[in-house]
Amino acid sequence: MLVRLLIFALLVWGAYYLVKKMIGAYRDYLEPRQDQNGSVSETELIRDPQCGAYFMKQQGVKAVIDGRVVYFCSEQCHERYRQSRGVK
Q: Exposure of 27 by Cβ count < 10 A (0-12 exposed, 13-18 middle, 19+ buried)?
């Protein structure tokens, strides 16, 4: 009886540990990591809002659209985004 209880406790702990790890990984996916200054890391991969490609932020094209900073993988995607949204 005691052995069954220990095995059950071990299984519950293992399930808890796995769920906790998965939630942590998902949270890291949703919330970009920040460096010591509180800004998003320059070497982080970000997604182009026009074509959906992932690229390193430091290699992207930076633009301010509607008061927020947006990064594009190329100048062509930036232009297509502006044309499709009617942004000047």
A: exposed
